[in-house]
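Checklist before submission:
- one chain only
- standard amino acids only
- sequence pasted in full

Submission:
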Amino acid sequence: RDFKSRGVPIDCVGFQSHLGTGIDSTYQANLQRFADLGVDVQITELDIAQGGNQANIYSTVTRACLAVTRCTGITVWGIRDSDSWRTGENPLLFDGSGNKKAAYTSVLNALNSGGTTNPPTTPPTSGTCTAAITPGTVWGDRYNTSVTVTGASAWTAVVVITAPQTISTTWSGSPTWDTSGTVMTMKSNGSGNTFGFTTMFNGNSSARPQIRSCTAG
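Returned file contents:
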């Protein structure tokens, strides 16, 4: 949240998951907390100590990622147990001879049961929404702005800035600009209803952005 508020360009957060014979009950919730900040999340280093619960924990981790829309990948930290850095814990999906373990089957079953989301057969109805500006941090050469949209989960907000100011960074939305570079059209991209951007003063430190319109759908 601090990085986002300061305009730091961060797109994804990786979770190292070198687990033992149990898993914290807040694992999925922690993935979701970061996703709610408008970044993708990935499980980047997964291995789980072998025990009576190994297959179930692998399944739990896989299902947690599937349940979080912005969880975009799982990387198991090795292939065969004999190749693992965790000597003697046999934490991977294949044994030392390359045979599939129960953990492999549990991951496959979780993936197969995840299903897919069918796109809507009719486009959403267009309407109006409200976009409210919240000023953010100001530095000597730039400042941040957050915009919160209410009244719609899918929306398009048009923001106008004053030249020679320019927008250098955006987050939690999909922006396009007109040819002048002073009119930004921001569309929702599944990152929530608050987006933000960093504006460079370029010699004009008094002007601030204005909302031109907000359209639902």
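Reviewer check: The CA atoms of residues 83 and 96 lie 8 Å apart.
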